[in-house]
Design goal:
By secondary structure, this protein is mainly alpha-helical. The protein has one domain (2-88): Orthogonal Bundle (434 Repressor (Amino-terminal Domain)). Helices cover 65% and strands 4% of the residues. The chain is built from six helices and two strands; from the N terminus they run βαααααβα. The protein is globular and about 40 Å long.
């Protein structure tokens, strides 16, 4: 998945550390995102980065093709739901 994190961060005059602090996303993870080494960031990460930069997820993150887009969205939703389920103490059978 391609992204424009660095472009938008630099427009704001922010360092990686500033974006990390404002978004709550780990510094090294932001760095990896900017270097395009993270293939499929989680939905929560995408939301945090987008809110911090004041841009929509679609403005920042661009899937390479439709199949990849569908897979990324499905994976992100699954990860997010699993995390929420664990936080509330539920199980898959609830």
């Amino acid at each position: 998945m391609l992204n424009k994190i660095k472009e938008y961060r630099l427009e704001l005059g922010w360092s990686i550390g500033t974006l990390s602090r404002i978004s709550g996303v780990d510094y090294n993870y932001v760095k990896r995102l900017e270097n395009q080494t993270v293939k499929s960031p989680g939905l929560e990460t995408c939301v945090r980065i987008s809110l911090a930069l004041g841009k929509s997820i679609l403005q920042i993150f661009s899937p390479i093709n439709d199949k990849e887009s569908q897979r990324i969205v499905e994976d992100a939703i699954t990860q997010y739901l699993e995390k929420q389920r664990k936080q509330i103490g539920g199980s898959k059978n609830d």
